[in-house]
UniProtKB/TrEMBL annotation:
Top-rank taxon: Bacteria
Gene3D superfamilies the UniProt entry points to: 3.30.300.30
Pfam families hit by this protein: AMP-binding_C (PF13193)
Biological source species: Desulfuribacillus stibiiarsenatis
Gene Ontology terms describing biological process: acetyl-CoA biosynthetic process
Ranges where the AMP-binding enzyme C-terminal domain occurs: 15-93
Protein name per the record: AMP-binding enzyme C-terminal domain-containing protein
InterPro entries documented for this protein: AMP-bd_C, AMP-bd_C_sf
Single GO MF descriptor: acetate-CoA ligase activity
């Protein structure tokens, strides 16, 4: 099970996913981490938004504040990506390895 530990806090990615699913703009979400030399880990959140919702700077700020109310500010994702559908396994679970692959590709492109 993947976790990250900003300072002395330790959270599982699924805890952040469960929190984000409570936000009115989000239908589904997947969060993964990629190791980073300077920050320890970069967190990537892949979001499926409600119909008609547009991801912009104000929604990003709203999501960051929403997360910061429950978790440490260090738990806020470093990157948000909007997807139409999250990859799933045959059993319907989130395909984290695919999300991790996408995150690594995004880091390499930067």
């Amino acid at each position: 099970m993947e976790t990250w530990s900003p300072f002395y806090y330790q959270h599982h990615h699924f805890e952040l996913e469960d929190l984000l699913k409570q936000h009115h703009a989000i239908v589904d979400v997947g969060v993964v981490g990629v190791p980073d030399i300077s920050q320890g880990e970069l967190r990537f959140a892949y979001l499926c938004l409600q119909n008609g919702v547009i991801f912009d700077e104000s929604l990003k700020v709203e999501l960051n504040q929403f997360i910061s109310e429950k978790f440490a500010k260090d738990c806020v994702p470093n990157h948000y990506y909007i997807v139409k559908e999250l990859p799933k396994t045959r059993s319907g679970k989130l395909a984290r390895q695919q999300l991790k692959t996408w995150a690594v590709e995004n880091v390499q492109q930067a």
